[in-house]
Amino acid sequence: MTIKNFERIFDKSMTSAKAHECITYIESSNGNFSWNKGYGGKDLDTPIIMASVSKLFTTTCILALQDQAKLSLEDKITKYFDSDTLKGLHIYKGKDYSFKLTISDLLFQTSGLPDVFGEGKNNLNKRTVHEDISVSFDEYIAIAKQLKPHFGPNTKNRAYYSDLNFEMLGKIIEKVTNETLKDSYQKYIFEPLGLKNTYLPTSEKEFIPHSFYKDKKIFRNNLILSIPACGGGVSTAREMMVFLKGFFGGKLFDKTILEQNQLYKPLQITMGGIHYGCGHMQIKLNGIVTGFKDKGSIIGHVGMSGTFAFYYPEKDLYLVGDVAQYADPGMCVRLAMRLALGAN
């Protein structure tokens, strides 16, 4: 492992026409190795939109609540939602699974529920390119009911990435704690780890960073406020590193649950070979890019705005960063993979 490798990979990635701002931070568990580099004015303490990296925070709350026996992953979601909300949500091949879904189905992305952001002619992803939309939880549910589920819950070797799964988990957290999701983030994550610059914005008065769509600087404040549990967090590279070490290091919940749930299922083909496990992604480092050699996997999450947070167990390295680019969601994945391989 050499810093020169990381420098070379980073500098080459920044030659892309879509690269306007970037921060990358790599560190070992004990901190003996640490490297970071910024581009376009971004540094370790620049606020960044976490987007779907926020799912790791929601996962943390769910697993912490399970540790306290306040919920079980095997709980049916009928315990937390009324029948009007669930009725007609998941009907697959004429069979209604709406009242059979469990917390585990949501957390592992094995519910089969459709992706309200990526599906449909006028899907939310297409709309957010042109406008800063605001969508309520009830509207997410209504949109999902108009779309078709992809398989029955917990079908063998099937997973389907859907932000709705995590927005539902957010509502479950609020129901169990009788507090806001923001309060739970504070209680189960921010306070234990001493995070001062990581937050879940809940009003327009709170600062939400910009991102880019190709060459255009964009602000999606309404959208971020609409998706707290699946993508609404704001942090910095420095504090995402602290969180990521806490997540995989057992500081926030009993990490044996992650060790006991090493079965990752492949997501839909549009997710580019990414697998999903207990509230987090797995990206295998093999195939053409490695000369068909198995270099292990990185585990963690990416966000559509270009954020990434991964642990590379084979080298005991944590990698976090942000490329701030909505137009190419795979840009941050490629950078994270290349950096991980650069450690070999």
UniProtKB/TrEMBL annotation:
Domain of life the protein comes from: Bacteria
A Pfam family: Beta-lactamase
InterPro entries, per the entry: AmpC-like, Beta-lactam-related, Beta-lactam/transpept-like
Domain Beta-lactamase-related, first and last residues per copy: 37-320
The protein's name in its UniProt record: CubicO group peptidase, beta-lactamase class C family
